[in-house]
Design brief:
With about 325 residues, this protein is mostly helical. It has helices at about 25-55, 60-85, 100-130, 135-140, 140-165, 185-190, 200-230, 235-265, 275-295, 300-319; strands spanning about 15-20, 95, 180. It has a single domain (about 15-295), classed as Rhodopsin 7-helix transmembrane proteins (Rhopdopsin 7-helix transmembrane proteins). The longest helix has about 35 residues, at about 100-130. The protein is globular, with a radius of gyration of 22 Å. It is a multi-pass membrane protein.
């Protein structure tokens, strides 16, 4: 159940508040506990992946290097959104200053874009591993891996800075200044501007194409070559293992790009603010939570390393 917000003093500096999920105290408590548990599970699962990759030499390969970076991104990504979201579920809503909203948007867009670019890098890694296995170690050097991760972050920073700075040059007005969302995301903030936003929406669409459409097409091309190479493998077991190494990545790709495309690439005339907020819950909670589950439950190396780490820890505590 959604509620209207009170009228805010127009003479003070620009501030925003988020639309509440519900005003029923019992539901507020349930939502707070649910989102807090999901957040703790995201932190725990992704931290475990980063830790096990960094501490086990058997996992120091390009694939696990990218996986640990993806998990670290998920930790930062959710930490930009969830703590502020939790603080606004219970009690009086806390106004967010203009600068604070801009900072959250900048880091949210930067980390989300880096996440999308990193999935392309991981697809390229799988392409080289399956289509050019004999040259894999020569192509996927440590230097190249670091350069690709740095390039993904650099491009995301550039696009996010341009988009955020463009949006926050707009004047914001209205007696409510209420964001129909749980974070300072681009579309709901744009709706509060009291100026012509056609140029800003066009820029948002271009950034969405660069961050979502182009990477997704590159991933599709990579998997066309990967599928062709796998089908040429004579051994059924070899084909199964090759498909298994790619299925986890494909699951994350479809979930991430699918949900984000529904929010950022749909025509504005066909969008609903409430639908956008519900979809945003998927890529804020579900995708970061599924990443460690998908990659650990379907990966024998990671499961084995985690099992050995737990056994070693238990043995050291009993001695």
């Amino acid at each position: 159940m959604l509620t209207k917000s009170p009228v805010f003093n127009q003479s003070g500096p620009t501030e925003f508040v988020f639309r509440v999920f519900t005003t029923v105290p019992e539901f507020q408590a349930l939502l707070f506990i649910l989102f807090l548990l999901l957040y703790l599970m995201i932190l725990g699962g992704n931290t475990a992946i980063v830790w096990v990759v960094c501490t086990h030499t058997s996992l120091r390969t390009p694939m696990y290097f990218f996986l640990s970076n993806l998990s670290f991104l998920e930790i930062c990504y959710t930490s930009v959104v969830v703590p502020l979201m939790l603080s606004n579920i219970w009690g009086t809503r806390k106004p967010v200053p203009l600068a604070g909203c801009g900072a959250q948007m900048f880091f949210f867009v930067t980390l989300g874009s880096t996440d999308c670019f990193l999935l392309v890098v991981m697809a390229y890694d799988r392409y080289v591993a399956i289509c050019h296995p004999l040259h894999y170690t020569f192509i996927m050097t440590q230097k190249l891996c670091i350069q690709m991760v740095t390039g993904a972050l650099g491009l995301a920073l550039f696009l996010s800075l341009q988009l955020t700075s463009l949006i926050f040059t707009l004047p914001f007005c209205g007696h409510l200044r209420e964001i129909n969302h749980f974070l300072c995301d681009v579309p709901p903030v744009l709706r509060l501007a009291c100026a012509d936003i056609h140029v800003h929406q066009a820029v948002l669409y271009v950034v969405g194409v660069l961050v979502l459409t182009v990477p997704f097409l590159l991933i599709c091309v990579s998997y066309m070559f990967i599928t062709s190479a796998i089908l040429r493998i004579r051994s059924a077991e070899g084909r199964r293992r090759a498909f298994s190494t790619c299925s986890s990545h494909l699951t994350v790709v479809l979930l991430q790009y699918g949900c984000c495309s529904l929010v950022y690439l749909r025509p504005r005339s066909s969008t609903s603010e409430d639908e956008d907020r519900q979809i945003a819950l998927v890529y804020t909670f579900v995708t970061p939570l599924l990443n460690p589950l998908i990659y650990t439950l379907r990966n024998k190396d990671v499961k084995g390393a985690l099992r050995n780490a737990i056994i070693s820890k238990a043995a050291s505590e009993t001695n």
